[in-house]
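Single-chain item
Fold in token form
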Amino acid sequence: RHPQYYLKDGVVLQVEKTLFKVPRYMFENSSRLLADMLSEVPTNNDDLPVELQDVTPVEFEHLVKFLYPLKPIASPTDPTSSEHLDISQWLSILRLSTLFEMPSLLEVSKHFLSSSITDPIQKIILGRTYDHQPWVKEGFTALCLRENPLSHDEGKMLSKEDVISLAAAREEV
């Protein structure tokens, strides 16, 4: 059982060997995929949890923490507010909102990550992974306009097509 997110009432979800018990409302209203999963089985029984695949307990905790904060948000500067989740937490939310087809949460995570991700290589990789073209464009623009060429290590992180496109674009600048 998760130490914080095994609540008195709710749906029992199993992530690897960890049980979470949280209200079903946000999952059902945010994701048709999860709503369908939750409608197929009795979901308040530890012996018959809904098993979530391809998710780690830490990632799922980040998602649940955003959907169901345990502390009220006192002010915009409150470190528990969504604006103060760290990048790794937002990346978990981005990945799971994609996996569970949660479009509104996907947009929220993209919004917060847009101002947090400053590395152009990471922007390109994430933009390609999550089909978010503004990040790809921002990453390419930053790499084209910087003084230093692409390093060998950076080149290995990108696809061959991206490296070729970047080299051609830098030649034009």
Observations:
- The radius of gyration is 19 Å.
- The chain has a mean pLDDT of 90.
- The longest strand covers residues 11-15.
